[in-house]
Sequence to fold (421 residues):
Amino acid sequence: MNNRGYQELYLTLEELYKARHFKEFIELQIQAVNIGQELREYHKVINLYRMLCSSFFQLGNLLNALEYLNIYRDLVMEVGNDIEKAAYYNMESIYWATLGMTDKSIHQLKMAISIVEKYPKEEILPTLYNNITEDYLALKQYEQAKNYIDKAIYLLKTEHDFKNSPVQIIMQHIRLNLARIKTYVGNTDEAYKIFNELLSEQTNDKSKRFYIEILKYYGDHFEQIGQDGKAYEIYCEALELTAYVEDDDLQQGIFKSLCPLLKRLGRKDDLIEAQSRYIDILNSVQKSNSIEMMYTTELENQKKDIISYHSRDPLTKLFNREYFEKKVTEYIEQKRSFAFILIDLDHFKQINDQHGHLVGDLALKHVANIFEKYDSVQFISGRFGGDEFICIYEVESVGQMKQDIQLLNDFLQIQFLVVDD
Fold:
């Protein structure tokens, strides 16, 4: 292949990468790299390795990303210019951020910035400022985030041509992070204005990833200012639009915000459905991602959350009757020696009648807190219903069991609850 044919192949690969057709890009990239090295098109080869590492990251294949990151680094350090070295440090920062090591990601970005600040007209510099802003946002260090986003905005306004399409794209991402910062530091009116400007600019691109990303953070904005109902509507809209993009990470981010919101709103059925979909997404990510431990932990947390919702009493947070029925069956099948204890609160109806059901609920929660302090491997407590509580006590000594139960009963007898002084 001659240089002209190689240029056409290179441009084709660039278009595949920009269109996020990462699998197709990877299939052609190896051939293009070999040809590029034969033709001594080293700077194009360096850029192809950058796009290859990014493609593997985007697909969640961290092992291959790391393998080619080493090749990419060696080539950049041997024949790369300053801008290419900065681009490599930026790519390495993605690796550290993916592992959750945000401090190391910031270190790599600062190395890249120290190189490129000599070239203020280079498009990569505002991108680096934006990336380090996102890291500081992840750490909730809003002052540092604001410092770098201000640098990015000043740079774009003074050194770059806004008619340039790539510059416009960078500026949109910077404005999104500016809106996030203003939300978190309390400048909510200014944040609201920026979010709405960004959304109106994307009217014809509602199926694109960036529009959905704006919606996700817009939902976060309304959560931050206490408008949970509006946040819920926006998250749902964002999830509907993810049908147009193949991006599990984007859906994962939305569900990660949506599930706690549904729990707070008390929408049990919606929460269970959302968590089930969230688990499917985490499973999908886990299968394609070599850092399984991170996703496995989140997956197990969501599974535990669903189990908790089915097995806990919503008022007292103790285990419910359904849980105890399963537990008793389990103990019987395992032939374990245990006592089943039923505890009824005296005069509970009188409390409700004289002081109202809200005070009655406080009394139930007060008793539940006492039981929680006793809970152990040997002793499990729960709410049977109404003013009745249940306990399972695994028996090692009948005498010790009687003594422990008597102590619990004596302690309950002396409890009192102060209401309105």
In short: The beta strands are 338-344, 379-385, 388-394. The first helix runs from residue 3 to 18. The first strand starts at residue 338 and ends at 344. The chain has a mean pLDDT of 85.
